[in-house]
């Protein structure tokens, strides 16, 4: 049997990543599967490890399993040299796990494969990519979604939350995101957006959310774009305008029940390419990681993800 490679984010899900890895490792040792494991030590490390493993193995890389959250798989996808030539599996261990929900991945799939209780099949999924503009030579892949506006603002607040280290030492890290969200309800400033889809320009005022979805799930299981599918190229993009703090809560509550698309100020687009330009630099995130600021060009990638699940 070929050697298996694991990239593990031990900090994912407040330590869930490490616990899951230890249970899988015990099973690997029982059935004597040859493996090598690499534990991430900081943000961006999974991308470096994926690049090193890819270079080390060249065309002979057969099996790579990622244990972590949406950010971990995002980094690995951008670190691998040839995604479509890798037998890749994903064990969800993060907070949100939107990728697992959107692609139908279950936490125990790999464990069942090791125990020979399940035969894994290879499924092909579409990926998105983004760059500064259409002619830019540098592009970044994403699997779940890109979000510009309020949600990226909250994520940035969470990353730079004052007293974050102390709260984590006191085992109170779970309150950082809710506090950041509440603060952002009053500190976020809506913006004006020019959205170019298939060379047609749409202008929006007082924008709070722009969500480019590769599959339905967003924010830990909310179906932002119920008809989006990673099994085919293209996106559904939602633009939300004219909110206030109370209406933000109303919008997110409506999303729980899939009623948000009929709300006033919510516009839905289907497309394969889009260019987002705001009246100022607006933060955006990809797969839950704040990556840059507008303008940004988004398109369906020519590369695909072949996932064993």
UniProtKB/TrEMBL annotation:
Cofactor(s) listed in the protein's UniProt record: Mg(2+)
InterPro entries registered for this protein in UniProt: ATP-NAD_kinase_N (IPR017438), Diacylglycerol/lipid_kinase (IPR005218), Diacylglycerol_kinase_cat_dom (IPR001206), Lipid_Phosphate_FormReg (IPR050187), NAD/diacylglycerol_kinase_sf (IPR016064), YegS/DAGK_C (IPR045540)
UniProt keyword Lipid biosynthesis present: yes
GO MF: ATP binding; ATP-dependent diacylglycerol kinase activity; metal ion binding
Domain DAGKc: 1-108
Any one annotated GO CC term: plasma membrane
Residue ranges of the TM segments: none
PROSITE patterns the UniProt entry points to: DAGK
Pfam families: DAGK_cat, YegS_C
GO BP of this protein: phospholipid biosynthetic process
Keyword vocabulary terms for this entry: ATP-binding, Kinase, Lipid biosynthesis, Lipid metabolism, Magnesium, Metal-binding, Nucleotide-binding, Phospholipid biosynthesis, Phospholipid metabolism, Transferase
Superkingdom, taxonomy of origin: Bacteria
Family: Belongs to the diacylglycerol/lipid kinase family.
Protein name (Swiss-Prot/TrEMBL): Lipid kinase
Organism of origin: Bacillus zhangzhouensis
